[in-house]
Amino acid sequence: MTHRFTAEKFPRMHCIPRMCLIVWVIIIVGAMTLPGQNFQGHPHWGNVAWIPFQNASISTKFFFDMVANWLLYFPLGYLMIRSVPGRPRRGLMCAILCSTLLAFAGEFYQVFCHNRHPSMTDVVDNVFGGTVGALLAEVAGERGDWFALKI
Prior knowledge:
mainly alpha, 4 helices
């Protein structure tokens, strides 16, 4: 049985958020892999901080990294909800799953890089940012679509 993508199943109003979502995923992948010349063919498992927030110190750098991770993944969650028509729970689960998978992929890439320090703190911050973005998109949808993308 062939499935046809019809306008009824995928309304036009979801096309722009989907395109923005694809672009934003490319931006996230680009941000996680910079600088590209650090990639090595062997892993550095000793650099991995396995326990989130274990060595967290109250410093400007720590808060900057945390907020940067939130802001990097916030649009991912928001655009994921805007891209999935109907079924808000399904969109929320997709946003959380995609945030988690993308965060783990980025940290796994960093295991093979010199001068990068993969951390579960980053994964937690990334998933938090994606989840907050998705929840805000759901609230925006329930309250009249403020700053929702419309054609």
